[in-house]
Amino acid sequence: MINTLAEMFSYTFLVRAVVVGLLVSLCAALLGVSLVLKRYAMLGDGLSHVGFGTLAIATAMNAAPLTVSIPVVVLAAFLLLRISENGKIKGDAAIALISTSSLAIGVVIISLTTGMNTDVCNYMFGSILAMSRDDVTLSIVLAIVVLGLFILFYNKIFAVTFDESFAKATGVKTGLYNMLIAFLAAITIVLGMRMMGALLISSLIIFPALTSMRLCKKFKSVTLCSAAVSVVCFFAGVVISYVKATPTGASVVLVNIAAFLLFWAARLVLGTKLKETLCRRIAERRNAS
Amino acid sequence: MALITCQDASFAYEGSTAVSGLNFEVRSGDYLCIVGENGSGKSTLIKGLLRLKAPQSGSVLMGDGLGRNEIGYLPQQSAAQKDFPASAYEVVLSGRLGARGLLPFYSGKDKTIAEENIKRLDVGPLRNRCYRELSGGQQQRVLLARALCATKKVLLLDEPVAGLDPVVTQELYRLIETINRETGLTVIMVSHDIQSAVRYASHILHLKNTQVFFGKTGDYLQSEVGKTFMGGARHD
Asked: Is the Cβ pair B94, A168 closer than 8 Å?
């Protein structure tokens, strides 16, 4: 095991990928709790498709992928948020509309320029080789910004997630914090997209939150637990993909599925045990009286 | 001076006037019930009182040093909230958010105030329980404790008993009455339950897209509007 790890980390590209991946999974898990609870989980999925479109455009223009993707995806996030909040088109339909549009635009641009090749496959399903040194620096800086903002605004994010009307009434600018969450989510998605793949990145946002909600009962413990679950699953996924030579993104998702099932089973077991103890206590009390 | 004064105020919802001709004042220690049928402008008025919506015309004045974000609000519950993983303590403490302003973390004083309100509403045993596992009545108590954390003067309750069973409903009404009587906190409640409204409230505001009645509860019961509405409610 240790030999495998040592061997893995002798490759610079793998070290880069793991560093960026761990940071991205951490950010995605933290934001995911809020997004899932606010019923905005599909926002992540929609944004990753927009990201696919921008990657195609960046490649066609020979531009750096992150510099094109970040502003466009952030804009798309604000747009989707506005539509979900007060649009005539409902949020889920709007997301489907925008994500399929960007997918179509991306595919057409690719086939007009480079043609359908392995690049397209990499955009869709991710590639561990995708991170250049500049990407790594930018990713680390952005990930630290995301984490810092999340910690700084943790209490506000809780209030806005739990009860927007109350937060608004006590003078919290809920619109602003919704935009902050969408903004941070957009950046996280763009950072993780090329490694995880445009079709798979939203799993990093959704799975850890849902997994930890099986067992945890406080917002703080849900947040911390999903951060831990996400980081562990990512690392395990990368190691498995290295050992078995499977695609990284898909392997990470599979580990996340396993974690989800594990937590679910744990809740079922704990739940039954709790019920048994309660029933026994009630019976004892009855016998005593 | 009155705590809240509405002078010829009207409020609009999506461009069209939802409620107009509002002339009433709420004094410190009052227990005001806002009644009226669905779509009579109650929710819009709440937004106006919370200063989330500016009056279309006329004015809403806050007196007695009542600050902008110092109304303790108990909103109607959303579907997403019902299965939210948060401890009761976390929910109550979030009531202090308005007092925090831009500061990121809660202070010791905030936590003390949260503890006081947990004790006052007798939700101590629930503090580490998960919000989604509480019964409807327990959830409302927790939310009421949160609202108390946000205010020293006024509670604004939006149909607090919706969806509760009769026993819990009466308990909650009595609790609100106790808070009003013992601490002198002003209570403004939107209610569909006219029988309980006239039983507990000191004042009634009846809306029908305009102000149909405002005054003491005793006068309301004698008024034509009151008699009709009460009669109608009885046949429901």
From this structure: no
* Closest Cβ opposite residue A218 in set B73, B74, B90: B90
B63 in a structural domain:
yes
* Residue A4 buriedness (CB in 10 A; 0-12 / 13-18 / 19+): exposed
Closest CA to B44 of B15, B7, B80, B79: B15
- Give the model confidence (pLDDT) of A220-255 as tens digits: 999 999 999 999 999 999 999 999 988 889 999 999
Domain ranges of chain A: 2-206
Contacts of B104 in chain A (CB under 8 A): 151-156
A139-197, pLDDT tens digit by residue? Answer: 888 888 888 988 999 999 999 999 888 888 888 888 888 898 889 899 899 888 888 88
Which ranges constitute the DSSP H helices of B36-193? Answer: 42-49, 79-82, 88-93, 97-100, 108-120, 136-149, 166-183
A contacts of B68 (beta carbons < 8 Å): 171
pLDDT tens digits, one per residue of A34-50: 999 988 888 888 898 99
Q: Are residues B207 and B161 in the same domain?
A: yes
Nearest CA in chain B to A209: B85
φ and ψ at B113, to 5 degrees?
A: -60, -40
pLDDT at B1: 67
CB distance B187 to B153 below 8 Å: no
**Chain A window 9-68: which residues touch B at a Cβ cutoff of 8 Å?**
37-39
> Hey, is the C-beta of A224 within 8 angstroms of any chain B C-beta?
no
Q: In chain A, what residues touch B143 (CB-CB under 8 Å)? A: 166
B165 and B236 both lie in a single domain = yes
Q: Is A2-206 a CATH 3.40.190.10 domain? A: no
Alpha helices (runs of H) in chain A, residue ranges in sequence order: 2-8, 12-37, 41-61, 65-86, 91-112, 118-125, 133-152, 154-162, 164-169, 174-196, 202-215, 219-244, 248-288
Give me the residue from B75, B84, B100 closest to A165, CB to CB.
B75
Residues of the domain holding B53: 1-70+156-170+185-236
Domain count, chain B: 2
- Does a structural domain hold residue B17? yes
Q: How far off is chain A from B145, nearest CA to CA, in Å?
A: 13
Residue B220 lies in a domain: yes
Is B99 in the same domain as B64?
Answer: no
| 8 Å CB contact between B25 and B2 | yes
Question: CA B102, B108, B111: angle at the middle one, nearest 5?
Answer: 90
